[in-house]
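Narrative of activities, Objective 1.

The group set out to show that a structural description can be obtained from nothing but a protein's sequence at a throughput compatible with the screening campaign. Below is one input-output pair from the validation batch, recorded exactly as produced.
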Amino acid sequence: MTGGTDAGVVPEVYVDEITPPPRPTPDDWIVRKDGGAMIDNDPNLDGDDETSEDLGLKHGLAVTFFRLYTYPDATLTFPREGDWRCDPPAPEGADYVMVEDEPETMSGSVSELVANADINAAPGNAYTLNFYSWVDEIWSYDAEAGKFTRGAA
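Output recorded for this entry:
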């Protein structure tokens, strides 16, 4: 990723508008329970249908994780009616942008965000923008070693 900082990984089942914080490696998501292993249950999803999915790990099971790359923030300003500025410009390599702490504003570009997000574009208003990319990776669970290895088994 060009200029992006590796922020860690999140199991695919948890990647949504509200995603738990990434952990450095897939192994950091493994918990031992009842003599076996499973992907750690995200407490933020209690009561959500996804928590009922089978998160148990069996030897050779392929699991998709999404690696998060973050980029430097920028400031979106509206100097006059119908005009906007992003300073610094959107970083090369970032696939997504959103207004800080407002995941519903997620867009593929700053111009798309300005056109479609529910933000107040009145002159003088300013927003902090977060830039990021997700890259999917396949990892297989090795029950003997008690860890993930990269790639399908």
